[in-house]
Every structure is written in structure tokens, then in C-alpha cells.
Amino acid sequence: MSETTPDIKSSQLEERPTAVVRETVPMNALRDFFGRAFRAVTGAVQQQHAQLAGPPFALYRGRPTDVVDVEAGFPVAAAFTRAGGGATDVTAGSLPAGHAFEAMHIGPYDALPQTYGAILARMQAEGVTPGDAMWEYYLSDPGTEPDPSKWKTLVVWPVA
Q1: CA–CA separation, 18 and 53 (whole Å)
Q2: Over the stretch 20-32, which tens digit does the pLDDT of each residue have?
């Protein structure tokens, strides 16, 4: 595991439509939730002949504790229509526009708090207030890259 400080960039985000599954999930059940949510969203997007427009992501509302309010899904090229009726409802959502800080995390998911800490320190140094939502784009697939030290996760934390 690398102990290097991530390169943190300030960026201006544009709103992006998404297709997601939103639930309140215990932290220790996130892996199962992500697998179920990503499969459900992929299936619903294919059914609607919609187009994925980016990597899978998870958006967290509020500071994570033992239980998190999380949306998992994909950006889509155009607005998505709710797809319910199955065991998992897929709904339309969006990643919001606005000022944010981003950092590329390289390494295992359990080291992500270090990257969040670095972003928070940068926000504090610049005198801005962190937003209540943040998200992670998963740029590596653990199913095809078994070495966690090589996993890439883009962390995006908007400013309030």
C-alpha cells in the first residue's frame, strides 16, 4: 500500500444523469450491495436501450458511519426512466453540478479514508465547507484486476 499523498484537483462539475439503486446499507454489506446494484442497473439500462456514459460509481449521502445512505449505478447518456417491479428498483438520479475536489486513489478500498482525509485537509486549507454528498468512480474491476494495490478509484467531493 502506498503512503503517498494523492494529487488533489479542484474542478467544476456539470450535472450528469444517472441510473441508480439507492439503499441504506451496513458498511460490511457494501460489496454485496454493489454487485446487486450494478447488475440491476446494467439490466435496466439494456431493457430501455439506454447507453452507459461512464464507469460505475457509488454516491454517499452524509458522512459514512456503520450504516451508509448510498446510491450505486452508472452515468447514462440521457435521462433514465424508473425501472421497478423486480427485487431491486432502479431509479433515475444525477451527479450534481458545482465546485468539487477530486483525487485519484490507487490501492485497496479499505485505504480510501486516507484519500478522503487528504481532500478534507485541502478543503480546510482553502477555507471551503465540504458538501454532504461525495462519490467514487470505480475505474478498476476487481474481477479482472485481482491485485488491490493496483485498483484505481476517483474520489469526488463537492463543496457545500
Answers
A1: 9
A2: 999 999 989 998 9
| Total residues found in the chain within this entry | 160
Residue 122: in which H helix or E strand, if any?
A: helix 112-126
Contact 57/72 with Cβ under 8 angstroms? yes
Region at 63 (left for phi over 0; alpha for psi -120 to 50; beta for the rest): beta
- Give first-to-last CA distance, the chain, whole Å: 31
- The three-class DSSP label of residue 75 is strand
Q: Which of 23, 54, 25 is nearest to 137 (CA)?
A: 54
Greatest CA separation for the chain: 47
User: Do 57 and 137 form a contact (C-beta atoms < 8 A)?
Assistant: yes
Q: Specify whether the CB–CB gap between 90 and 20 falls below 8 A.
A: yes
Per DSSP, the residues of 3-53 read -PPPPEEEEEEPPEEEEEEEEEEEGGGHHHHHHHHHHHHHHHHHHTT--B-
The pLDDT tens digits for 105-157 are 999 998 999 999 999 999 999 999 999 999 999 999 888 999 999 999 999 99
Structural domains present in the chain: 8-158 (3.20.80.10)
CA 59 to chain centre: 4
